[in-house]
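Thought: the user asked what Leukocyte surface antigen CD53 isoform 7 looks like in 3D. I have the sequence; next I should run the structure tool and report back without guessing.
Action: structure_tool
Action Input:
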Amino acid sequence: MTKITFTSCFKCLKYSMFVFCLVAWILGLITFIVGIVARVNGSFGILDAHIPAVHAGANLLIAVGFFIMLMGFLGCCGAIRESQCLLFLFFAFVFFCFTLLMAAGLWAVAWSSKVNHYMYRYLEEQVIRYRETEPENESTKLMDFIQKKFGCCGVTSAADYGTRSPPKSCTVSKSIQTYSRGCHEVLVEACRSNLSVICGVGISFALILLHTTELPFTFVLKILTLMLSHSWFEFLTLFSCRNATFAFYYQSAPSHLHQTLLVYP
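Observation:
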């Protein structure tokens, strides 16, 4: 395909899009690194597999950062190479990211109202299993981990263990005093904090994508316009040259060959 010739205005638009996508790539990289750091430093061990909402915020940052990096890379390459294919892929990723972020934000809003009831039932079930099973069971390991990690005891207090004495994981370090806060309150705070991150990041990034794609979209429209106009001009030029050549041969040929030229493709 013949390379499109840009006017100074289109060149300005082209490099503006490149800078925009480069900034997007850098922001995506920062988001990705922050998500990785939050995921590693904020790991909740075995709790991660049982309550995904506790670490869902870090996972969302990792996913968003990765897709924005990929989107920025496609946009930069598409702008510099003037590649329609890469630019269409860029917009496909913009649409995908927008849909993913809005869905994540709305899911976080919907789940935030249910987390209180869900967490209470979940912890109540774990405490009942703790009372009825032997040590080193999965439920006892999970509750011991939660109580040590968050400095809490039982669902609402140590009284949830009934006549059985509270486990050692309920006691303050180097003391016989038990933690005063229940694990339900602490875990609900942790989950809602992460859900707030999901909601804020999801909806904010989605709105940013919606309002900042005007420049790339304008650039793609300009490219398509130039492509179509260039191809149409090329077609007209080719068609005119062919007709001119035919007219020359038709006029210079003997009269008995005119009929042959008329039927010749």
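Thought: the tool returned a structure. Summarizing for the user.
Final Answer: Structure for Leukocyte surface antigen CD53 isoform 7 predicted. Residues 1-6, 230-253, 256-265 have pLDDT under 50 and may be disordered. Residues 214-252 form the longest helix (39 residues).
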